[in-house]
């Protein structure tokens, strides 16, 4: 039995086992640790109040506004290149490392020097120094994660992510108990990110020793050429999320930012599972694109879509119905007024759950212009609608702007993915829709009328949803069974 478990979790035997192994590792590392961190942050929001939590959220998002062009775009490209050309892995890693160092230095200069000039939070300037350290640590950890993903060794990424998030949660909890301030909360993030960065460097210490001997200047221009569009896409994606917080702070103050951030954090937590699945299949997807194996690629994409929508639809319907009692339970009475904001943001799940899969298809085919232009159009849409809606509707207006921007951005990416690769999106959805309407939809509403506790409503609705799927013999049930057969 022990040998079978060891082979499943540490060896590569077949494509389905690899996906299942990596998904479970990332779920254990990412989802569980992020869940722990999320509950600590929810506790922090209750203790600090909307104003204090708003200061913390505003500072980090404003800092991120100046640093996002040094983030994940190049790492995605590194994963793709090493997956498709493993014989050049050290050359790609070393060259990408020095490109990241240059971008990171520019980001930190902008953050420390320019970002405080745009802040309207009194006493927030010292926090930017800690935010700069956070960006630097996350940059090194992100580079390590790109290597783990390229060779589908997600157990190492799970380890670094888990250690990072648990460290953040533990230090943040101590800070909240003994020094409940936005400063202490920011420092807890920095400490956890530092521990994760050091662990990632240690695990890849042999790779880092080769950065000088394997650097290839001839790779710089091709990497930068591809990165130019990916960096724009990486810029405008986070921009659409962070500009909401910044513009809310300008017009409505940090208390409104705190309430909006509380609703937004729920969405971020729900997106962990689809992001994990996307990261899990990306190396395999890149190889299939290079091999030109359209049939296997279509099967992989459709299986991923069936799983993602089977999770997204019940979350969307149940979340819209239970928004108010959920916010009351998690954050307290002060945050219930953001229920409408949460309900609107939940509508984005239909686009955001499959985002990683469709984005990976476009990225694997190197469609740089489409990635950049769709992200830019989404960002412009978000800014224009924020200007129109925030002054009158506050957080709810910003949520509407975000939803419209996501529709523009992801709609264009989805259309390009369909053009590049044939796949069916809605063929397996009718039974999922029926089960979602009956379970998280109708069941949640009825139980809410009888004043059942929100946690019990979620549990009973989920059980009823899966029961209906089984009774309807939905194809997604077999996907779940096949997945768990690989894990047992």
Question: Short description, anyone?
Answer:
This protein is mainly α. It is 84% helix and 0% strand.
Report the count of strand segments. 0
Roughly how many Å is the radius of gyration?
22 Å
Percentage of β-strand residues: under 5%
Unreliable sequence segments: none
Helix content: over 70%
Helix count from the secondary structure assignment: 20
Query: Could you report the average pLDDT, rounded to the nearest whole number?
Result: 76
Oligomerization: single chain
Characterize the overall form. Answer: globular
The assigned structural class equals mainly alpha
The span between the termini is: 10 Å
The largest sheet, given as strand count, sense and whether it forms a barrel, is: none
What is the chain-wise order of helices and strands? HHHHHHHHHHHHHHHHHHHH
Give structural notes:
It is built from 20 helices and no strands. With 488 residues, the chain is mostly helical. Helices cover 84% and strands 0% of the residues.
Question: What are the key terms here?
Answer:
488 residues; single chain; 20 helices
Topology of this protein?
Layout: H1 2-10, H2 15-67, H3 72-84, H4 89-118, H5 127-150, H6 154-178, H7 182-203, H8 205-208, H9 220-252, H10 254-270, H11 272-291, H12 294-330, H13 339-346, H14 349-352, H15 355-364, H16 368-393, H17 395-420, H18 430-449, H19 454-471, H20 475-486
Helix pairs in contact: 2-4, 2-5, 2-6, 2-7, 2-9, 2-10, 2-11, 3-4, 3-5, 3-9, 3-11, 4-5, 5-6, 5-7, 6-7, 9-10, 9-16, 9-17, 10-13, 11-12, 11-15, 12-13, 12-18, 12-19, 13-17, 15-17, 16-17, 18-19
């Amino acid at each position: 039995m022990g040998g079978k478990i060891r082979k499943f979790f540490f060896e590569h035997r077949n494509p389905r086992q690899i996906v299942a192994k990596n998904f479970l590792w990332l779920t254990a590392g990412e989802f569980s640790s992020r869940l722990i961190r999320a509950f600590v942050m929810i506790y922090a929001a209750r203790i600090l109040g909307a104003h204090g939590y708003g200061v913390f959220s505003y500072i980090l998002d404003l800092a991120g506004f100046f640093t996002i062009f040094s983030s994940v775009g190049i790492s995605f490209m590194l994963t793709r290149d090493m997956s498709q050309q493993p014989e050049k892995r050290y050359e790609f890693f070393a060259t990408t490392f020095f490109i990241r160092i240059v971008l990171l230095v520019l980001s930190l200069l902008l953050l420390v020097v320019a970002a405080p000039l745009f802040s309207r939070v009194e006493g927030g300037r010292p926090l930017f120094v800690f935010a700069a350290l956070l960006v630097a640590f996350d940059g090194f950890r992100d580079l390590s994660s790109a290597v783990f993903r390229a060779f589908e060794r997600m157990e190492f990424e799970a380890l670094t992510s888990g250690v990072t998030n648990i460290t953040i949660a533990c230090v943040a909890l101590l800070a909240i108990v003994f020094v409940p301030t936005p400063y202490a909360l920011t420092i807890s993030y920095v400490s956890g990110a530092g521990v994760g960065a050091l662990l990632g460097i240690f695990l890849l210490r042999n790779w880092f020793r080769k950065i000088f001997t394997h650097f290839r200047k001839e790779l710089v221009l091709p990497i930068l050429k591809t990165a130019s569009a990916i960096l724009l896409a990486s810029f405008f994606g986070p921009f659409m999320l962070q500009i909401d917080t910044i513009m809310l702070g300008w017009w409505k103050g940090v208390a409104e930012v705190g309430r909006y951030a509380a609703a937004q954090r729920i969405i971020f937590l729900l997106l962990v599972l689809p992001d994990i699945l996307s990261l899990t299949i990306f190396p395999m997807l890149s190889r299939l694109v290079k091999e030109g194996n359209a049939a296997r690629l279509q099967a992989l994409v459709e299986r991923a879509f069936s799983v993602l929508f089977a999770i997204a639809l019940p979350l969307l319907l149940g979340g819209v119905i239970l928004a108010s009692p959920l916010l009351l339970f998690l954050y307290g009475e002060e945050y219930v007024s953001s229920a409408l904001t949460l309900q609107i943001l939940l509508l984005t799940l239909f686009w955001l759950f499959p985002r990683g899969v469709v984005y990976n298809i476009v990225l694997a085919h190197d469609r740089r212009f489409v990635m950049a232009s769709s992200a830019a159009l989404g960002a412009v849409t978000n800014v224009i609608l924020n200007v129109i809606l925030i002054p009158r509707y506050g957080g709810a207006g910003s949520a509407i702007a975000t939803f419209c921007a996501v529709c523009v951005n992801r709609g264009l990416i989805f259309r390009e993915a369909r053009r590049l690769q044939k796949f069916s999106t809605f063929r397996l959805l009718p039974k999922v829709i029926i089960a979602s309407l009956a379970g998280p939809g109708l069941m949640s509403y009825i139980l809410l009328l009888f004043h059942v506790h929100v946690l019990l409503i979620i549990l009973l609705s989920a059980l009823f949803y899966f029961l209906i799927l089984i009774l309807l013999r939905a194809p997604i049930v077999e996907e779940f069974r096949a997945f768990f057969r690989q894990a047992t």
